[in-house]
Amino acid sequence: MYLALCGAVFLAAYLLNILTITVGYHRGLAHKAVRLHPALKRVVIVGGNWLTGLDPKAWVVMHRLHHEHSDTPLDPHSPVNVGILGIGMEQLRNYKRVIIGLAREEPEYTRYAKDLDFPLNALNRTKRWYLPYLLHAAVGLGLGFGIGWLLGAAYFFGMMSHPVQGGLVNSLGHAVGGRNFDTDDNSRNNHLAAWLIFGEGFQNNHHRYPGSASFSYRRHEIDMGYGACVLLEKLGLATIQRDYLIPRPPREHSVEAQVQS
Ligand SMILES: [Zn+2]
Ligand SMILES: [Zn+2]
Asked: Which residues surround ligand 1, an ion (CB under 5 A)?
């Protein structure tokens, strides 16, 4: 029972991180592939920063830099530049650079945020970016002292999972896997990253159709993040921009056609 509780807490924290980033920050704020209900958008902008420690505005600007300069020396996180193992430090270094650039209102960064109707989060404006981390550490310690250390660790590491999630997507999604589209970058469709991080591993599909709420092209490319978008739409909390959805593959590429031929 206790082990099941620890597993459930880890999973819930891990999923909250994924959903905040892939649905809220990425598909919602950065690409507007999903229009978030104003109340949900507010929760994502304010709550997302407390949950993940990542500033939504800085995340969006860094991500737009990634799309504009994919796998060139100006990409803020490309395994082509720093190798798979170098991605963790690279994304952290450039995230910090973007925060500072936005705080100083440098045009090099603000030009990627013109459509964003919200400022840097108050946590960053007041140089208290570390508070979400302190909060999660305090909750983890509280659970550890009060109930059990495994539960405290499950909470803390689940909440701190987003740099690992981002690192897997940014490294594997641009280094290991097949390609459906001949894009100018080194983007790949990595199924492991897509399973672990709700469709985000399908970077090649995503770079070809960045405005699509779904990152899946072929039938066997499972995108659970898009499933979450559909669920939110059913709940009246989001609207999928269907005009921009990735098209289905032509028949000769479809699984049925391959089976029949
Ligand atoms: Zn990418
Ligand atoms: Zn993107």
From this structure: 203
